[in-house]
Design goal:
31% of the residues are buried. With 77 residues, this protein is mainly alpha-helical. A two-stranded antiparallel sheet has the order 1-2. The protein contains four helices and two strands. The protein has one domain: Orthogonal Bundle (Arc Repressor Mutant, subunit A), CATH 1.10.10. The longest helix has 9 residues.
């Protein structure tokens, strides 16, 4: 699934960046380019980085499965 249309970044690219140590939206952006164009995908990147929702296990796959279903969890912040 494409997460960032501007930079053609997929959910797999984002998950790879997180598994390799990216721990913030800015770090994912630095690794993948996602979130550096129009910025519309930054909420989705935050969802992936934060593990989808408060109290959930840290899982990029879970975050993207929720996003595919249209679930937009509230992000702590």
């Amino acid at each position: 699934m494409v997460v960032c249309i501007c930079k053609a970044v997929s959910d797999r690219d984002v998950a790879r960046a997180i598994s390799e140590g990216a721990r913030s939206v800015d770090e994912v952006a630095q690794c993948t380019g996602a979130g550096t164009g129009c910025g519309a995908c930054r909420d989705s990147l935050a969802c992936a980085v934060q593990g989808a929702c408060p109290g959930a296990a840290r899982s990029e796959r879970t975050a993207f499965q929720l996003m595919r279903l249209g679930v937009r969890p509230a992000l702590a912040g």
